Amino acid sequence: MADNGDDQYRINEGDYVVLKRGDIFKAVQILPKKKVIFEKQWFFLDNAVGNLYSTTFEISSGGILQPQKQKETGNPSDLKEAGTDNRHIVDDGKSQKLTRDDIETLKEQGLKGQEIIQQLIENSSTFRDKTEYAQDKYIKKKKKKYENTVTILKPSCRILAMMYHGREPGKICHLRYDTLAQMLTLANIHAGSKVLVFETCAGLVLGSVMERMGGHGSVIQMYPGGGPVRAGVESFGFPAHFHDTLHEFPICHVNALLAGALDAAAKDPTADEKQFGLAAEEEQIPPEAEQQGSPEEQSMETNTEDDAGQDQEKIEKEKRREAKAQEKKVKLEEKQKKLAAAAALLEGRNADGLVIASRFHPCPVLMTLLRFLSPSRPFVVYSQYKEPLIECYTKLREVGGTVNLRLTDTWLRHYQVLPNRTHPVLLMSGGGGYLLSGTTIAADRSKPAAPQQSEEPAPKRQKLKDTEG
Amino acid sequence: MSFVEYSDCIQDGDVAIVYLNHNSVMPVKVQHGAQTQTRYGVIRHSSDLIGQRYGSKVTCSKGGWVYVLHPTPELWTVALPHRTQILYTTDIATITMMLELKPGSVVCESGTGSGSLSHAILRTIAPTGHLHTVEFHQQRAEKVQEEFTEHRVAHLVTVRNQDVCKDGFGVSGVADAVFLDIPSPWEAVGHARAAMKRQAGGRLCSFSPCIEQVQRTCQALVDQGFEEISTLEVLLRVHDVRTVSLPLPDFGPDSRTETSPNHAAISLKTTTAPREMPGHTGYLTFATKPRT
């Protein structure tokens, strides 16, 4: 019906995808003949191309992926025999008759995970005495160990947030996925708005904001240091037009912008190099240019055997230098154009939302960036620690300009739901970080209240007739 | 003004949110000549609201002042008239992320209730998505439809007055995500699956206050072939910022120090927990539809 064009649901070459096994995720790009290592196993993703997203693949020998047959029904053991309790189970380490070597041999013979588990069950002297529940648990545990499958998912904010939190929490300032969810909602991120983002979370927060805006409106990444960090944005695999809505502005020019002196600061190229670390980028260009140059040089040497060659070489060198300078100029101009575009977006000081999640002290960042928001717009600040947010709260109460201030965190618990065995999962996250959220208000124009009141009729009389005269 | 698009100034016909204080907000339908009574006195729409900037301070007749805010789904959630138990922002935020909602998503929801979640969904799926919401209570369905029109989001939503367990969502093969907040969600899981896109691994969420409901729902999800079934609970903890003063006890004269400490207390900025907090709202069960 609505699914006629099913291409968007299929895995294509070049797609950014997320690999999943159990609760483990890894973001990769589908590239031909590229070896991927995931959970101590290597394989190639070539065979995944053309399959539907969220297909589970079996990894066969040679790292070849094969789509798993739909729903392998039932558990490996169809034995209905089970014990009633564990009074006869003794942990003597002798219940499994297969040795490590035996299992390795089975693996070498090319037995599938399912078959190995069947072997393990048959060779366990205590399996039959275990309760039905314990048997389930045993099979689940062995499945995790011996089944070599991988599921390929389409990336999303949910999956990437869970992936980063599970694999590299340090890279995202320990921002838990439910906390990120709160941020996106509290900041009222939606299509068509203009949102400022200041983050040092590998681009996860920025990408999540972009996902929620769906390529409508504009996102301005306020970045510290030499250049914007947004590796995580790539993993979302956004269509190209999303990137047209993404702007960047160096935090080191914010004071100049607020003072209306950005032109002076940014249009001086030397100041640029010093101030926003263009110098660092430039350094990378010469070696590149040199490399490009060297094969030319070699070919030239072989071709020119006479004296004229030297002159020509000189000219070539001069040309290259010019080209390099030209390239540098073009790059700088481009950078300035982008800076000017971002500055133009900020200058109106009419942004619709502000999201901060960084390893920096949030207080100066918040106090400065709030100045770019329109009145009656939400903002949200994340910090791994509570104290800096207490400071932000105190400062905001002191200077005014905001209402609805709230310092919160969320408590998250997962459940195991099984017939007669429902309970909270034994381990839970101890904390997901803290949020300070609020709403901006218009600066007080301090108009005298008394005359305004006298201009208006008394409320009681007012109810009877229309106010509008 | 619209719940899916900001504007700068208050206009006749807008719905504005009056912020009275920290835990009190009220919605106001802005109308020429109308007035609204608050505990700080009267707000006259024509002179106090229309033409003013959202976020402005308004001085009421008794001299007290309030702020007039642009509506957002989050403000609406704390301001809306309750016709049923409603979902709050903490759960809504989690649901929005876990259902992978974004601009363009097609979502099915039941029941609509007071529309707290519906507004948040609409905000996220605009401008190209659509919400199909099913409410079995006729007056509630009519009332919420009215609100959607007033909030200028009616073009993004279809309200159906029917029983989702019997009649489903009224659409098939179109939804990216389904949300269930009904007494017996397990009876609607089949309808949910039918409403979802065939080849996409769409997401489902069921909200239930009781664990017995969760167990039956999870069983139904397994039976319907749903994958990645996961149940969780999320609670908001509010930290009230306070300056507290901690007195120091007097240990009597100390021979080692000449002067005895004369400051009898130390004050510091910290946070306190509220005496009571909502300790349970409901269990959220999420699942992914199998691709077919």
From TrEMBL, chain A:
Family of the protein in this entry: Belongs to the TRM6/GCD10 family.
Main subcellular location: nucleus
Chain intervals for the UniProt region annotation (Disordered): 67-89, 270-331, 444-469
InterPro entries: TRM6 (IPR017423)
The entry's keywords: Nucleus, tRNA processing
Signal peptide: none
GO biological process: tRNA methylation
Function of the protein: Substrate-binding subunit of tRNA (adenine-N1-)-methyltransferase, which catalyzes the formation of N1-methyladenine at position 58 (m1A58) in initiator methionyl-tRNA.
Gene for this chain: trmt6
Subcellular location: Nucleus
The keyword Nucleus belongs to this UniProt entry's keyword annotation: yes
Protein name, UniProt field: tRNA (adenine(58)-N(1))-methyltransferase non-catalytic subunit TRM6
From TrEMBL, chain B:
The keyword tRNA processing belongs to this UniProt entry's keyword annotation: yes
Keywords on record: Acetylation, Methyltransferase, Nucleus, S-adenosyl-L-methionine, Transferase, tRNA processing
Residue numbers binding S-adenosyl-L-methionine: S114, G115, S116, L117, E135, D163, D181
GO biological process, one term: tRNA methylation
InterPro entries linked: SAM-dependent_MTases_sf, TRM61_C, tRNA_MeTrfase_Gcd14
EC number(s) from the headed UniProt entry: 2.1.1.220
Residues covered by the tRNA (adenine(58)-N(1))-methyltransferase catalytic subunit TRM61 C-terminal domain: 64-289
Any one Gene Ontology cellular component term annotated for this protein: nucleus
Gene Ontology MF annotations: tRNA (adenine(58)-N1)-methyltransferase activity
Pfam family, one: GCD14
Location of this chain's protein in the cell: Nucleus
S-adenosyl-L-methionine listed as a keyword: yes
Broad class of enzyme this protein falls into: transferase
Disordered: annotated segments: 273-292
Top-level taxon of the source organism: Eukaryota
Substrates-to-products reaction catalysed: adenosine(58) in tRNA + S-adenosyl-L-methionine = N(1)-methyladenosine(58) in tRNA + S-adenosyl-L-homocysteine + H(+); an adenosine in mRNA + S-adenosyl-L-methionine = an N(1)-methyladenosine in mRNA + S-adenosyl-L-homocysteine + H(+)
Similarity comment: Belongs to the class I-like SAM-binding methyltransferase superfamily. TRM61 family.
Complex and partners: Heterotetramer; composed of two copies of TRMT6 and two copies of TRMT61A.
PANTHER family assigned to the protein according to its UniProt record, in alphabetical order: TRNA (ADENINE(58)-N(1))-METHYLTRANSFERASE, TRNA (ADENINE(58)-N(1))-METHYLTRANSFERASE CATALYTIC SUBUNIT TRMT61A
Task of the protein: Catalytic subunit of tRNA (adenine-N(1)-)-methyltransferase, which catalyzes the formation of N(1)-methyladenine at position 58 (m1A58) in initiator methionyl-tRNA. Catalytic subunit of mRNA N(1)-methyltransferase complex, which mediates methylation of adenosine residues at the N(1) position of a small subset of mRNAs: N(1) methylation takes place in tRNA T-loop-like structures of mRNAs and is only present at low stoichiometries.
Protein name: tRNA (adenine(58)-N(1))-methyltransferase catalytic subunit TRMT61A
Source organism of this protein record: Stegastes partitus (bicolor damselfish)
